[in-house]
Automatic annotation (TrEMBL):
CDD domains in the cross-refs: TBP_aldolase_IIB
Record-given protein name: Class II fructose-1,6-bisphosphate aldolase
Gene responsible for this protein: fba
Top-level lineage group: Bacteria
Pfam families: F_bP_aldolase
Length: 312
């Protein structure tokens, strides 16, 4: 059952968070919906513009719609992650998305407000909600690349003005996370004083955490033991940080890097351990199973297990 993103985020505020997972291909779509069904958790399915270009937007969204028919009990929303106006117009025009993100965080505050407000007007006309971003996360995601020097935290005072002036429905904030596998290189972790202050300025308003992956050192070690060469100093967001952030207003936690690492681990170990294999679906089935299990751990972490019942 598809619901609006705003419904999900307003419902869970302060109590639990909804996992927002970026999907790129069929195994991920199926793995995600299986997990949502098994743990009766609401989910947000996300597609980046990069994912839409990779599979073709219609192909990608059609896979999600096929999953909707296959798993009719799953409560989900469909979100365009990190869009600019050209992607957003397409996503809104298609009538298939429940929310879009306008990422104008790299612009000046004034220009970010202007671009976001224009998208909000366009989206709200069609009943679609809008996530905006204020502050800049460092790191790499698809074709986004931001150096640590160019990143900065969200200002709580600006956050209040921004939400008032744009009318956006949720806000992605920069409070110490980063995109990609090389997180927290400075080891500083989540900035709870800033998060708390933003929550106080915007009570009840859904906040979004990008770069919410954990980047488990055990996974990195297994990848490298199977021939990978990933940096072992990477540190993601720790589970206790996520748990602490939810009562402060984080309603949506974006997860992308952990799933990429999982794909790398499953496939590297598969080819190392089963050199006689050459059947793509054998590795694909292993990945789907591992994907479902891993999403299950995220659902438990965010407290979303069993919460689909709140929407039926
Ligand atoms: Zn992001």
């Amino acid at each position: 059952m598809k619901v609006t993103t705003a419904t999900l985020l307003n419902q869970c505020y302060g109590r639990y968070a909804v996992p927002a997972v970026n999907v790129f291909f069929m195994e991920e779509v199926i793995g995600l919906f299986r997990a949502a069904q098994h743990w009766a958790a609401p989910i947000i399915v996300q597609t980046t513009p990069f994912a839409r270009d990779y599979a073709g937007a219609d192909m990608l969204v059609s896979m999600v719609e096929a999953a909707e028919r296959t798993f009719p009990d799953v409560v989900f929303a469909l979100h365009l992650d990190h869009g600019v106006e050209s992607h957003i117009t397409g996503a809104i025009g298609s009538g298939r998305y429940t929310s879009v993100m306008i990422d104008a965080s790299h612009d000046s505050f004034e220009r970010n407000v202007k671009r976001t407000a224009a998208v909000v007007r366009m989206a709200h006309e069609k009943g679609i909600s809008v996530e905006a971003e204020l502050g800049i996360l460092a790191g790499v995601e698809d074709d986004l690349l931001v150096s640590a020097e160019k990143s900065f935290y969200t200002s709580p005072a600006q956050a209040l003005d921004f939400v008032r002036e744009t009318g956006c429905d949720s806000l992605a904030i920069a409070v110490g996370t980063s995109h990609g596998a090389y997180k927290f290189s400075g080891g500083q972790g989540l900035q709870f004083d800033i998060l708390e202050e933003i929550g106080e300025k915007l009570p009840g308003f859904p906040l979004v955490l990008h770069g919410g992956s954990n980047v488990q050192s055990g996974v990195i070690k297994r990848i490298n033991a199977a021939g990978g060469k990933l940096g072992e100093a990477a540190r993601g967001v720790q589970d206790e940080e996520i748990r602490r952030a939810i009562p402060l207003g984080i309603t949506k936690v974006n997860i992308a890097t952990d799933m990429r690492l999982l794909w790398t681990m499953v496939n590297r170990e598969f080819f190392r351990d089963r050199p006689e294999e050459f059947t793509p679906t054998t590795a694909g089935a292993l990945y789907m199973e591992a994907y479902t299990d891993y999403i299950g751990t995220k659902i438990a972490l965010l407290g979303a297990e069993g919460k689909a019942a709140e929407f039926s």
